[in-house]
Amino acid sequence: MHITLKQLSLALAGAGLLSLHGCGGGSGDTTTATQAAAGSPTVTTPPTALELATAFLKQVDASRATAVPTTGSANEAFTDGCYLGDGMTKALAIASFDANVAQAVEGRKFVIGSTRTNVQVLAERNTTNADGSSRRELDIQYQVNYADGTVDKVVKDTLISGSSVGSNMGAGVTCTTPESSSSLRYFGNRAVVSAGLRSVNQRSERYSLATGAPLTSAVDYNKVVQLRISDPGKVAKYAVVTGPGLPSAGVKMLSPRIQRDDPLFAGKRGNFVDWLDTDLFTICRSATSSRPAANLADCATSGASSNNFGAFNLSATATDTTFDAMGFVAGGSYSVALYNDDGWKTVNGQATQTPIATYTRTLGSLPYSAVALASSGVNADLFPRITSSLTPVEQATQVRNKTASTMNLSWTALGVMPDVAKFGWGSISSFVSGLASAGPATWPGSRQSASSYPAAGTTTISNYTVSAPSSLLVTPTYGEVSVYLVDRNGVAISSTRTFE
After folding, report:
1. 37: Cβ–Cβ under 8 A, 6 or more apart, which residues?
2. Per-residue pLDDT tens over the stretch 209-257
3. Which of 178, 409, 458, 461 has the maximal Cβ count within 10 Å?
């Protein structure tokens, strides 16, 4: 099975990398006045931490009430110069936005009209910096209510006021762009990478790339947990993830940057020439397994592929049986240990190395029962079912010939989920991968994708254009179009039309 690696924010994260937390301002001068006895001077009491945080988030709400920012600087106007959140700094976030403004704005449309409520202050720290300046940090929690009806129930952030001088940016680096202001700013969770888990149910409608004919198993179901690690700051080479449902030694995952650039990895599975630094880490393989235990994985010889652990390309009943036997736990804790050494080059090489950072992440929910989503059959299941104005034969030809195509896409509305959860976009995506050379070798490869973001509730797109892949792709071996929906709480529903 192939699940396209999506970066939402991750996102997320995905993303994560969209840096959707906010963009500007502060509220350090808010006061609450109380009137003493008649004729007495007015006594003002300073605002509480909760009042400050609430006022700050209302400013964030106002900044995206009717539109999203159109420049990276505007998008990050609420972030401190020493911001570090899930590996993203303020400078990286601005550069990422400005590199493709149209895509950045399109991908953030879902935040228009969002509001932040149920604000709590979890912790407050007042400290003195080494230069004698003061800082105040607030750890807060709140929920985000989106205009499409979805709700991100638990969002945690750290805010800062005062001076951010001397802030640690990870890997022994001290911030060189501190700010000093009485206004609150986003300060970030200080994590050097984005690390998380996502539960995904997927419907795969499968066709032959060679002919466009349905495969013998024409519709399959997949039920997986995605291990989502992204490293925009390029601080780690590999990671080991442990927790319920994974091998007891965990799994070893390799950075896409290493898979793309390291000479030792040249010609190995996963050696895509167009990996992005922000793409997700994938699982190292062995000679006998695509998802071996971390102490058996041989990244340098067998390569790496996928970030999904679960049941693939099976009937609904077999999907549930296979996945449930793995032992994933809703609410389970998972450890993500990050390494920036050469331990990936040898089997169990991490055993003698020390992680540069370790994070604990929680799997909020398990994927839904595949049997429940399959309902009464492939023509009546609860997934969005894709229809195109191009026939499967025409789509397969377009993928094989590496030509652009335009089609009208439609899909059935998502059925009512077993827990009645609300889902929103997500994206509509096209993806193609294959050989990056004309020779007989399978690797190196090329993987290319493009995403669109329809309006909430949309079930059609007219004149949806799939661009021709770049010249890096020589021989296509796989293509897909997919509908991807998220509940904003770590669960996704995916429906794909694949050509393989």
Report:
1. none
2. 999 999 999 999 999 999 999 999 999 999 999 999 999 999 999 999 9
3. 409
Domain ranges within the chain, ordered by starting residue: 49-191, 196-499
Element (H, E) at 49: helix 49-63
Full DSSP string of 388-443: ESS-HHHHHHHHHHT--EEEEEEEPPPPPPTT----EEEEEEEEEEEESSSSS---
What is the three-class DSSP state of 221?
strand
Residues in the chain: 500
Residues contacting residue 471 through CB under 8 Å, at least 6 positions apart = none
Residues forming beta bridges with residue 242, ordered by sequence position: 335
Give the contacts of 495 (CB within 8 A, at least 6 positions apart). Answer: 202, 203, 205, 383, 384, 385, 386, 411, 482, 483
Q: State how far the Cα of 280 lies from the Cα of 297, in Å rounded to an integer.
A: 18
Q: What is the distance between the alpha carbons of residues 400 and 211, in angstroms, rounded to a whole number?
A: 10
Q: Specify the residue for token string 């800062």.
A: 160
Which tokens hold the place of 156?
């945690």
Write out the H or E segment, with its range, that includes residue 55: helix 49-63
- How big is the CA angle at 288 (ends 283 and 292), to the nearest 5 degrees? 35
Give the DSSP per-residue string, 104-166.
Answer: HHHHTGGGTT-EEEEEEEEEEEEEE-TTS-EEEEEEEEEEEE-TTS-EEEEEEEEEEEEE-TT
Dihedrals φ, ψ of 246, to 5°?
Answer: -95, 165
| Distance between CA atoms of residues 252 and 339, nearest Å | 10
Q: Is the Cβ–Cβ distance between 350 and 336 less than 8 Å?
A: no
End-to-end CA distance of the chain: 10
pLDDT tens, position by position, for the chain (500 residues)?
A: 333 333 333 333 333 334 455 433 333 343 343 444 456 677 789 999 999 999 999 999 999 999 999 999 999 999 999 999 999 999 999 999 999 999 999 999 999 999 999 999 999 999 999 999 999 999 999 999 999 999 999 999 999 999 999 999 998 899 999 999 999 999 999 999 999 999 999 999 999 999 999 999 999 999 999 999 999 999 999 999 999 999 999 999 999 999 999 999 999 999 999 999 999 999 999 999 999 999 999 999 999 999 999 999 999 999 999 999 999 999 999 999 999 999 999 999 999 999 999 999 999 999 999 999 999 999 999 999 999 999 999 999 999 999 999 999 999 999 999 999 999 999 999 999 999 999 889 999 999 999 999 988 899 999 999 999 999 999 999 999 999 999 999 999 999 999 99
The three-state secondary structure class of 376 is coil
Rounded Cα gap, residues 63 and 390, in angstroms:
41
Q: Which residues pair with 127 in a beta bridge?
A: 135
Dmax over CA atoms of the chain, in Å, equals: 92
